[in-house]
Structures are given as structure tokens and as C-alpha cells.
Amino acid sequence: MYPFSCTKAADTRAAIAAGQQGGRYLAGGTTLVDLMRETVERPGTLVDIGALPLRDITSTANGGLRIGALVRMADAAADPKVRNTYPVVAQALELSASAQLRNMATIGRSGGGRGPAVGTQRVQGRAAQAHG
């Protein structure tokens, strides 16, 4: 691995600012750490967002859902709001990884691939905000 620094985000604004400066978000770390070990990813700074309040799934005024970046894939797939409003999303989450990974992987990382975890994800044309 290459050298890197690590910081813990105090709030979502600090996390977003660190990401805009090139920091990579770390929550569960299942994907990013593996990619760093294989030198596919070489971030200069890791931003720990694990303590941020991003674990809720809430309904929005326009009938959409706001899914926090730290919601685990398994939790989102099992949530009644997701299953009832977006059954195809629940099914996709259930089929996209093994049970072990679904229980560890967060929506922010999984939904964004290797992109940022804190920000806005699009689900069937409706925004699911990862931060408030």
C-alpha cells in the first residue's frame, strides 16, 4: 500500500468538503481497503464517515425515499418503505451481492460504485439524499 492520511469527519459538511479536496470516504471499508491493497485505488486521504448520522430511510414529501449513505444493503432491502415503494430496488439489492457483503456494504458505496459515498444517489428518477 501507498502512504495515506486518515481523518474523521465531524459532520456531513466536513465530509463533503474533504471529498471535494480528493478525500475518499470510508464507512465499512470492504471495497476501498481491498482496492487500496491491490493499488487500484491510491487516495491521499481517507475520510472516516462511520459516525455520521446517515443511517435512516425516510419518506420525502414528493413520495420518494431518502436513504442514508450508511444504511447497509441488507437493511435497505428489508425495509418496508423500500420494498413497497421501490420493489425492484429491494430485489436488486438482494441479488447484487452475497449475504455477507450485503450485511457489511453501505448504500453510499454500493450505490455509487467507486464514486463518493456522501452526496445524492438517483433511484428511479427520484433523488435519495444521502445527507440533509
What is this entry, summarized?
With 132 residues, the protein is an alpha/beta fold. It has helices at 12-20, 32-37, 73-78, 80-85, 87-95, 99-102, 107-111, and strands spanning 5-8, 24-26, 45-48, 57-59, 65-67, 120-123, 126-129. The chain has a single domain (5-129), classed as Uridine Diphospho-n-acetylenolpyruvylglucosamine Reductase, domain 3, CATH 3.30.465.
Could you say which overall geometry the principal axes of the C-alpha atoms support? globular
Specify the number of helices.
7
Strand order of the largest sheet: 1-3-2
The succession of helices and strands, N to C, reads EHEHEEEHHHHHEE
- Number of strand segments: 7
Unreliable residue runs:
111-132
Q: Report the radius of gyration as a whole number of Å.
A: 15 Å
Helix content: 25-40%
- Give the terminus-to-terminus CA distance: 34 Å
Biggest sheet architecture: 3 strands, parallel
Percent strand equals 15-25%
| Category from helices, strands and their pairing | alpha/beta
